[in-house]
Amino acid sequence: MKNKRVLVVDNEQQRRDSLQQLLHERDIPTLAAANCEEALQLLVSEQVDLVLTETELPNKSGHYLLRQVKERLPEIEVILITHNASSYNLLQALRNNAYDFIVRPIDSGEILFSALERAFKHIDLCRQNAELLKELEKNNRSLRRALKMMMALNASIERVTAATDIEELFMELLSSAMCELQASRGFLALFDRTSGKLGLKVCKGIPPELCRRHSAGLPDGLTLSLARRGKPVAIPGNLPEKLATLAAPGEVENLFAAPGLLAAPLLLKDRVAGIVVISGHQNGQSYGEQELNFLIQLSHHAALALEKVGVIYQLKRDKAAVP
Asked: Do residues 258 and 238 lie in contact, with contact meaning Cβ atoms separated by under 8 Å?
């Protein structure tokens, strides 16, 4: 009971002080108000777990206070104290969701503390249930998001694997990733097997002249570092300073958008052939594990499709070379 705070409401100071003294003896922190208006003001500015109020208050009664508390702050429990144990009073208390109803005299406080103990346990149970419900809702949202991502991934894989040439495949890979992950910028860069340079092959949300300028090779910087690393990368929000220092002049401003960045290597027969990078969530949200897995899986299937397209292309060349 020591971690709960009680607001004592009574217009008679002697009774109010007496109640507070009883509660302090049990180390229960309290606040005090002389009327309904003072009590409502305190409830706006102070943390209170339970209201202990006299029913007969000046101007507005304890029953009015009970109704106001339950309308505005339903998580706060209210116990009414009265000299009048009429059936009308009791019925009003029950109808307005009072937790308990205590008839004076309180004397030693045995009845009071029994009611408080039960009320505090009820408050703890309600809070635990609320936390469990919140966690359940969070898990359900996560499951719905995972299901939606899975369906989107399957549809994207179908589009990528249906591509009949390399350029179409690359564009479908980047377009699908950016559309489903709501990115504002993206590019696919490949290593040239002869020069070893990393050049931009497909871009979206990036000026075309910039893509053409770096099609033969990007300067040493962040993109090249990520590609050489050959591992997936997920940055939820802004680019960390450690990574920003790797960027070439103008690279961050021209190629990346905030917030968030996802990068997945394009692997061909266990060789890093390039990298797919998307950035800048259009709704300002953070990228996480689900989004990164989406990009990894899509890139993996794009690599398989690329091998298939390469085989078909080679077969056509071989057939054309036969006299």
From this structure: yes
- How far apart CA 273 and CA 299 sit, in angstroms, is 11
Same structural domain, 111 and 230: no
Q: Is residue 142 part of a domain?
A: no
CA torsion sign for 48, 54, 60, 64 is positive
Sign of the torsion angle spanned by Cα atoms 87, 92, 94, 99: negative
Residue corresponding to tokens 């002249």: 209
Range of the domain at 94: 6-130
Residue-wise pLDDT for 271-316, tens only, equals: 899 999 999 998 888 888 889 999 999 888 888 887 765 544 443 4
Rounded to whole angstroms, what are the CA distances from 210 to 98, 192, 245? 69, 18, 21
Query: According to the model, what pLDDT value does residue 164 have?
Result: 74
Residue among 71, 129, 123 at smallest CA distance from 100: 123
> CB neighbours of 153 closer than 8 A, spacing ≥ 6?
180, 294, 297, 298
pLDDT of residue 1 exceeding 90, the answer is no
- Is residue 260 within 8 Å of residue 286, measured between CB atoms? yes
Residue 136 located in a structural domain: no
Using one digit for the tens of pLDDT, what is the confidence trace for 112-146?
999 999 999 999 999 999 999 999 988 888 788 77
Examine the domain organization and report whether 126 and 166 are in the same domain: no
